[in-house]
Design a protein that fits this description.
The structure holds two protein chains of two kinds.
Chain A lengths: L35 E8 L7 E8 L2 H12 L7 E6 L28 H18 L1
Antiparallel strand pairs in A: 1-2, 1-3
Chain B lengths: L1 H12 L8 H29 L4 H6 L10 H4 L5 H22 L5 H29 L3 H19 L8 H6 L6 H18 L23 H8 L1 H5 L7
The chains are: A alpha+beta, B mainly alpha.
């Protein structure tokens, strides 16, 4: 199979057609030449939490919402979507995962919020009773 | 209305698998489904209320000069700019038409209008977003959008070609008429076009004829293609 020449136009419009040098080299990709990643949050019904469902690539927030609607708003019940720039999400490093260890240490089980789980069960039971 | 939606839905569906990015591919495909759905709803109303032939017969077995769609919707897709501008011009008119019909004295149309409002709202939002974005993006995108607008403008005015029943429709409070629709349409789209940094062409000579069965040479190939499958099967075949 013949090699695709480097200067073949890139057909993916998310990447502006920067003129790649014909020899292997680094090509700087400038601002606006690559679409931004947006995190998408989906809300099933009013009052529910928005739940993270994935990402879309778009040049601005409005288009990100349109794309999110196409990607995530068509197959599930949906009343609302949020998008936020992926770069606006701050997180811990997985290297620091150990700082959470004591949350689940066996001798500290008393800290586990098991009671909440029970309440969920009780509520679900109550609800099912109401329906029946 | 039904013919507009059928033909336009078919044109939209031609972007399936060809859209410039995946999400747009999906967007056009799903809007195409919506349009065909609206066409089906209207053909069904005709069948039920006026005892016409069934929707399949109406959609697939009429001749070119029996189709009442405006010429705007039958034009072949060119590049994406062309399709986006047509989408913008047609869908605003479609949205307002149904909005006007929500108070129609003809109950089936008033009901349909309420049912599909959300879909049409999204079609318009989709079109507005792209028009304003591309009108204001690069020199190339601006020029492309403006020339598509110039090319399509007179065809868009052809949406509002009055039918022979115009006066009757207005008198019986079924529909306020194409003139009112066109006025509302201009009022609605002008600020958006301005926001997109585009200009409404000054010349305006509406391309009429579509509503009377006169069409461009681009409609027949579409009709032939659309009926290709159904014509290859024995009559009455069901899928």
């Amino acid at each position: 199979m013949s090699k695709i020449p480097l200067n073949t136009p890139v057909l993916d419009p998310r990447i502006k057609r920067v003129d790649l040098e014909s020899t292997y080299g680094t090509t700087a990709i400038g601002e606006n030449e690559h679409w931004i990643s947006w995190e998408v949050f989906h809300q099933k019904k009013r009052g529910d939490q928005h739940v993270h469902v994935g990402i879309v690539h778009a040049p601005d927030a409005q288009l990100a919402l349109l794309f999110a609607k196409e990607q995530f708003g068509r197959r599930l019940a949906c009343v609302n979507l949020w998008v936020t720039k992926s770069s606006d999400i701050f997180s811990f490093s997985y290297d620091d995962e150990d700082i959470f260890d004591n949350a689940t240490a066996p001798e500290k089980q008393y800290r586990e919020a098991a009671g909440f789980k029970v309440m969920e069960k009780i509520n679900r039971y109550k609800k099912s009773k109401q329906k029946a | 209305m039904a013919d507009d939606e059928l033909i336009y839905g078919h044109r939209m569906s031609e972007w399936t698998g060809m859209g410039p990015i995946m999400e747009e591919d999906i967007a056009y495909s799903s809007m195409a489904q919506d349009k065909i759905g609206h066409a089906l709803a209207n053909y069904s109303i005709l069948e039920k209320e006026f005892q016409t032939a069934n929707p399949d017969k109406l959609a697939f077995f009429r001749k070119e000069n029996e189709m009442m769609n405006c010429q705007l919707v039958e034009l072949s897709n060119h590049e994406y700019d062309f399709s986006l501008v047509r989408h913008f011009l047609f869908d605003h008119a479609d949205f307002i038409r149904y909005e006007m019909l929500s108070t129609s004295s003809f109950a089936p149309l008033a009901q349909l209008s309420k049912k599909i409002k959300g879909e049409l709202k999204y079609h318009v939002l989709h079109a507005d977003t792209w028009l304003t974005r591309l009108g204001n993006a690069t020199d190339e995108s601006h020029v492309r959008m403006q020339s598509a607008l110039n090319e399509l403008w007179n065809y868009a005015l052809g949406i509002f070609e009055p039918s022979d029943f115009e006066a009757q429709l207005i008198a019986e409070k079924i529909f306020d008429g194409e003139k009112v629709l066109q006025q509302k349409w201009i009022e609605k789209i002008s600020p958006i076009i301005e926001k997109a940094n585009l200009k409404i062409p000054t010349s305006s000579s509406p391309v009429y004829g579509g509503r009377k069965g006169y069409h461009t040479d681009q409609l027949q190939p579409l009709l032939t293609e659309m009926a290709e499958v159904i014509s290859s099967e024995a009559e009455g075949t069901e899928w």
